[in-house]
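In response to reviewer comment 3 from the previous cycle, which asked for concrete evidence that the modeling workflow produces usable outputs, we include below a single protein chain processed end to end. The sequence was submitted unchanged, and the resulting structure tokens are shown without manual editing.
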Amino acid sequence: MPIDYAIARTTLAELFVATEAEYNERRPIAVEDEVSAASETVFRSASQGYREALLGCAIARLLDATSNIRFPYIQQGDNAYNGRTLDEEVINPLLVEKMIPCSRGPYLSMFRRDFKFIDEKVHGVRDKTSFRACLGYIAFLEQADEQRVEVLIKHLIQRFLELRERENVPIFRIARLSVEQFKVVFDDMLQVPSGGFIPMMFTIAMIKTIKECYRLAGVNTAGILGSKDYFVPRDLPSAFGDWREYRDYLTENLLPHEKAVRFFKKYADMDILYAGMNQKDNLYRVQISSVLTNDWEFIKIGNWEKNPEVHGFRQFKMGKTHAGHSKNKYIGAHYEP
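The workflow returned the following structure tokens.
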């Protein structure tokens, strides 16, 4: 039975209000130790998508006990549901409204295409421990009756409230800073490791300020800074497992939703086109550069694809081989004369 998203919004909002009241009165939702351990692992993950998708699974289970909450794409079977639409129509709007830290949507980045919440998918995710915990919580939902599912949802909401309380740092507006005070603030902030993000933020802010003050038309940040990848850090920031994870994080958090969708579609197409490529981090770095320079026309990616070695790899995949491919860094050991 298709999910009625209006009912889903109302149901989740009512459960949230009830849970928040209990949370403010310091009355925790009582669950078994194994349930609490599973949710703690999921919420401890650096990947926000696990907890957001899990809440969607729980709401789907509550509204339709016959749905297979492990199948979040409707083409996966008669009992599957539309996890992305449920997230975009119900889950994400509520999290944003309640000022709870969240991504732009787990089905835009982590759970694309034909993803299923099953054991066989563990090998394809980065945070395997959290994914297994997510699968464990889904198993608890599958075994629960309607009343029990509501308890499990309220427990997840309580976790989100705890997350908000930890992350919600009060910020006070500063009336005015002198030039000397700005220098102190900037110097201190530039000492914070950010993978190049803070210097990039200052640079863009300065260019936009100059544009506004002098009424300059057609100022393009990437054009001013040149064609090189000034924004992309030389070394992978320590908070990320690989360049692809860093790319997805920046796309989710820096781009407007409409542009993020466009970028993720481009990534999916390139994943297919360049599957099996050696030194694929070069591809991810170019994609990161496009995100950081707001290159939504993919000019940087287009220039990279014109590189002779990249073109050679595409030719190699089409079965057109020649001796020069043995020296192509993107082909390497794949070449057999």
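The chain has two domains: 5-167, 180-306. We consider this sufficient to address the reviewer's concern, and the full set will be provided in the supplementary archive.
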